[in-house]
Amino acid sequence: MSESRLKILSGNSNRALAEAICRSIGEPLGEATVTSFPDGESFVKINENIRGNDVYIVQATCPPTNHHLMELLIMIDAARRASAKRITAVLPFYGYARQDRKDQPRVPITAKLVANLLVAAGAQRILTMDLHSQQIQGFFDIPVDHLYASPVFFEYLAEQPRERPLVVCSPDIGGMKMAAAYADTMGATLGMVAKKRKSASSVEAMSIVGEVEGCDVLLVDDMTETAGTLTAAAKILRDHGAVTVRAAVSHCILNDIAVERLKAGLIDEVITTDSTPVQTHGLPIRVLSVASLLGEAILRITNNKSVTDLFKIKGF
């Protein structure tokens, strides 16, 4: 192609990932000004011609969530008004995903509201990864390409020596399907920690389903913010004789509470991705890049090819 019809733009939430995506597919990152007025209003200006282009806007809705979501909506609107041929919102991490149902009286379904806002702004396609629940895809009336970080995790885990039996464990009931997929792929046994949530930042591990004594345990989850679920699960696993406990978490949005909990050393290693910016704080956190995965998906979407091959796993 003498001139690429593909344009990748980035907001401020995870520019490093957007740049890595561009490097992986050999495309330059589009020039756009994304800043704020003194009163906090977001301002966007796309500094190059995108008329008739296939535009991808990379923006994780991680903290500050509302600000980054608003940036994304304004960027989509700017691209639509600049006559982009097709606009794909690339959300490596989809914020508000936990608010996907009415579990209490008089509460919103914010995950659906965010979906409506993205479509109303002008998004014509969504590319995302490891949604909190897969049903969120149904909140959109536009195509959604839902990728998984698991192939990236598996490739890393395949390189790690295994000295003891491995148990893949879900830290709650909701993650059993994911844990079962990991256990099946890795030839491991399956376990689960039953928990009771006390508050948004505090949980109590109640009991274990499965045998972990003398085993290495891999906890798998889609995201962690306060690390309450992970550390409570790790504690009860160690109390039941687990030799090592590691955690594979797609989205690591660690706050100060999480850092203090992880410093206790109950988890030997946290394996995560760069779907959101991750500060390791000197903790045993391994950050794996999903840039090549997202970059290949972007190329396949642009060229109207299947993304199914991206779910294939290397090393197992």
UniProtKB/TrEMBL annotation:
Mg(2+) binds at H132, D172. Keywords: ATP-binding, Cytoplasm, Kinase, Magnesium, Metal-binding, Nucleotide biosynthesis, Nucleotide-binding, Transferase. GO terms for molecular function: ATP binding; kinase activity; magnesium ion binding; ribose phosphate diphosphokinase activity. ATP binds at D39, G40, E41, R98, Q99. Its cofactor is Mg(2+). The active site is at K195. It comes from the Bacteria. Its EC number is 2.7.6.1. One of its GO terms (cellular component) is ribose phosphate diphosphokinase complex. It catalyses: D-ribose 5-phosphate + ATP = 5-phospho-alpha-D-ribose 1-diphosphate + AMP + H(+). Pathway: Metabolic intermediate biosynthesis; 5-phospho-alpha-D-ribose 1-diphosphate biosynthesis; 5-phospho-alpha-D-ribose 1-diphosphate from D-ribose 5-phosphate (route I): step 1/1. Homohexamer. PANTHER family: RIBOSE-PHOSPHATE DIPHOSPHOKINASE FAMILY MEMBER, RIBOSE-PHOSPHATE PYROPHOSPHOKINASE 1, CHLOROPLASTIC. Belongs to the ribose-phosphate pyrophosphokinase family. Class I subfamily. This is Ribose-phosphate pyrophosphokinase. It comes from Cephaloticoccus capnophilus. The gene is prs.
